[in-house]
Write a structure and sequence with these properties.
CATH class of the domain at 1-91: Mainly Alpha
Order of helices and strands: HHHHHHHHHH
CATH architecture of the domain at 1-91: Orthogonal Bundle
Helix content: over 70%
Distance between the termini: 45 Å
CATH topology of the domain at 1-91: Rna Polymerase Sigma Factor, Chain: A
Radius of gyration: 18 Å
Number of helices: 10
CATH superfamily of the domain at 1-91: RNA polymerase sigma factor, region 2, helix turn helix motif
Number of strands: 0
Largest sheet: none
């Protein structure tokens, strides 16, 4: 971020902290899409992702006094969103229900980037989506979250470490474990 961008961000944080809805609205406009996709990766469904990303912004507004002008807004918001998503997950009965809608989206998004119009290729991709859906469904929540942040949100290792509040080595370890588990599951499937 440029120096002017940093100054502008700090001023916006100060305004938002004091209750300026327009300033907070600028954060919502700037980060809603990113928050939605993060929630989608964590929550597993379009409807839940919409609800949770909106709820995260509502909670952030209520907690705006804890905003630090020296720190970027999104990592602070992400912590709120992350806790919200994990609380919702904890309250659900089965992990399969949580991921039933997320995995097809993740696979579809990856397939969309490389899919050809060829019907045979589309059939292959559909089969791959089913396999990947089942594999992602079997990952532990922490590994799944780290994998989503890296592979589908495109964050760098250091950014993931900052967002999750974990050491860089833990990010690498979780990604290694997630990828290894996916490969094993897909090989066996």
């Amino acid at each position: 971020m440029s120096v002017n961008g940093t100054v502008a961000e700090r001023l916006r944080v100060e305004r938002a902290r004091s209750g300026d809805r327009e300033a907070f609205g600028e954060f919502v406009s700037r980060h809603m899409r990113r928050a939605y996709f993060a929630a989608l990766g964590l929550a597993g469904s379009h409807d839940d992702a919409l609800d949770m990303s909106q709820e995260a912004f509502a909670r952030a507004f209520r907690a705006r006094k804890s905003l630090d002008p020296e720190r970027p807004f999104y990592p602070w918001l992400y912590q709120i969103l992350r806790r919200l998503c994990f609380n919702v997950h904890r309250d659900r009965r089965t992990r399969q229900a949580r991921l039933a809608e997320a995995a097809p989206w993740l696979v579809e998004e990856a397939g969309r980037r490389s899919a050809a119009e060829d019907p045979a290729r589309q059939a292959e991709n559909a089969e791959l989506r089913e396999q990947l859906d089942a594999a992602i469904d079997r990952l532990p929540a922490r590994e799944r979250e780290t994998l989503v942040l890296r592979e589908f949100e495109g964050l760098r290792y250091r950014e993931i470490a900052e967002l999750l509040g974990i050491p860089l080595g833990t990010v690498m370890s979780r990604l290694y474990s997630a990828r290894k588990a996916l490969a094993t599951i897909l090989r066996e499937g």
